[in-house]
Design goal:
Elements lengths: L6 H4 L10 H21 L7 E7 L10 E6 L37 H21 L10 H28 L1 H13 L21 H22 L5 H39 L12 H17 L7 H8 L21 E8 L2 E8 L4 H26 L34 H11 L3 H10 L30 E3 L3
Antiparallel strand pairs: 1-2, 1-5, 3-4
Helix pairs in contact: 2-5, 3-4, 3-5, 4-5, 4-7, 6-7, 6-8, 6-10, 7-10
Bound molecules: fe (ii) ion (FE2) (2 copies).
Length: 475
């Protein structure tokens, strides 16, 4: 027996769901599976918790941040697209200057579907990766932030599923089902991309993940936000507003771990931060090395004909396409690419079209560097003479021509044997991971923080430090 649910009000939306019976039915059929998935593979043991969450009920400034305590299974996962711009034109590729498509062009159907599925698959994957973290939260403030990220990744799945249901007919519906069938780390049905099958075992990894891997998401979304397929572009634009919060959680999370390490170093006049229960800067550097390089791989091969085709066909643009001053067709343009030749790292001019992945990776690296600079300011403000740094892009790669090399974090080639022997100078060792894991003990008293992380400078939604961001529901 099914209970009648008012989906139109349960699913806040600006896509006229009330008027589209066919779409409504499709989403009604998909939703119970989504809730079952959330129950089974979403955050562990949280059915009973009320979480102070931001819910989007509209895309305007007043609508997208409604605050209140909600039980997560009751979170209203909505469907929002940025409002349609009158007469939006495709900004690049062979269709440049033509009106953006409001329907899927038949010849691009399979390709667009694959782009949407690849993006969509990462959203529930990260929820699955992070599902155990709530049990070891360093504070209620952090616990809330984790859950906010989780429900919004759930909403991002909804955003992609909406597109599949609304524009891709039967195969779209099948793809939407498959999103709930693949699972992170599942040996038989893994998630599509490597980094999304890794565990997120501890909160340091979570903060690094939201800084580095959600930032990959930002760059992917930003290039899809340029798509000639207008509903995809408008979906991604709204997702980007939420994504900013995820990266905020990552950047401030790591920043607070750094701050705490520095406090311990100053207070005890020592580098032995672990002795006082903090996470030392060398360990932070290793986690940074790992998460940065795994995220670099997500951009794909340096040279890619797929990337060239996506661009030429008007499906996926460059980061901030419309702000770039060139012809937006790139037929004759070239772009410098760092690649591997005869075991050496070299810079080569390549056709700009095939080098689009590399260009996006470059934009991403610059953005990461700005964050690392801000972290270094925290260290500097504490009067400590240490700097964190992004490793060389050829270090610890698994995808692309650079993956054939063994280099140290500065990009100097080392023999394979030496690399194996020294890898734990550069990447988290089992001992480092065990140490970080040993710190993961839940702190759930309002206003209290685990010893390894400093409190935030200000509360979410300007709430006081001891605000009860997460509480047990009264029965
Ligand atoms: Fe997302
Ligand atoms: Fe995200």
């Amino acid at each position: 027996m099914t209970t009648a649910i008012d989906y139109v009000s349960r699913i806040p939306n600006n896509v006229n769901l009330a008027e589209d019976k066919r779409l409504q039915r499709a989403l009604e059929q998909w939703q119970p599976g989504f809730l079952r998935w959330w129950q089974d593979l979403g955050p562990v043991g949280t059915g009973d918790l009320e979480v102070y969450l931001r819910t989007a009920v509209g895309v305007d400034t007043g609508g997208w941040a409604h605050w209140g305590h909600v039980k997560m299974p009751d979170y209203r996962w909505g469907i929002f697209l940025e409002p349609q711009q009158a007469d939006r034109r495709i900004a690049f590729g062979v269709h440049k200057g033509e009106p953006a498509w409001q329907q899927v062009p038949g010849e691009h159907r399979a390709t667009l579907r694959r782009l949407i599925v690849t993006q969509g698959d990462t959203e529930p994957a990260s929820v699955e990766q992070q599902r155990h973290l709530g049990q070891t939260c360093p504070s209620l403030y952090d616990l809330r932030n984790l859950f906010q990220v989780n429900v919004e990744e759930g909403r991002h799945l909804w955003a992609m599923v909406y597109l599949l249901h609304a524009y891709f007919g039967r195969d779209g519906r099948e793809e939407a089902e498959a999103m709930l069938e693949r699972h992170s780390g599942d040996p038989d049905k893994p998630r599509l991309l490597g980094a999304f099958n890794e565990r997120t075992p501890d909160w340091l990894s979570f903060f690094m993940f939201t800084f580095f891997t959600d930032r990959d998401g930002k760059y992917q979304l930003a290039s899809l936000a340029e798509s000639g397929f207008d509903p995809l572009a408008r979906s991604c634009r709204f997702m980007l507003t939420e994504e900013a919060h995820h990266m905020f959680v990552g950047e401030t999370g790591v920043g607070r771990v750094i701050q705490r390490a520095c406090e311990i170093m100053r207070e005890h006049r020592t580098d032995d931060v672990r002795r006082f229960g903090g996470i030392d800067l060398p360990t932070l550097q290793k986690y940074l090395n790992f998460h940065f390089t795994v995220s670099l791989d997500l951009f794909g091969q340096e040279l890619s004909t797929n990337a060239a085709n996506y661009y030429t066909l008007g499906l996926k643009g460059r980061y901030q396409e419309e702000k770039i001053a060139d012809d937006h067709v790139l037929e004759d343009a070239s772009y410098p690419v760092t690649t591997c030749e005869d075991g050496r790292i070299v810079m080569r001019e390549a056709a700009a079209l095939t080098a689009l992945n590399e260009r996006l990776r470059d934009d991403y690296i610059k953005d990461c560097q700005r964050g690392v600079d801000r972290w270094n300011k925290i260290i500097e403000a504490n009067g400590i003479d240490v700097k964190l740094a992004l490793p060389h892009r050829a270090f610890h790669r698994a995808i692309g021509s650079l993956s054939t090399l063994h280099v140290d974090p500065r990009g100097r080639p080392v023999p394979a044997e030496e690399w194996m022997r020294r890898q734990y100078e550069w990447l988290p060792s089992p001992e480092d991971e065990a140490y970080v894991a040993s710190l993961m003990v839940a702190v759930t008293e309002p206003g209290k923080f685990a010893n390894w992380i400093a409190p935030p400078s200000k509360g979410i939604d300007n709430k006081p430090q001891d605000f009860e961001y997460v509480r047990r529901a009264a029965h």
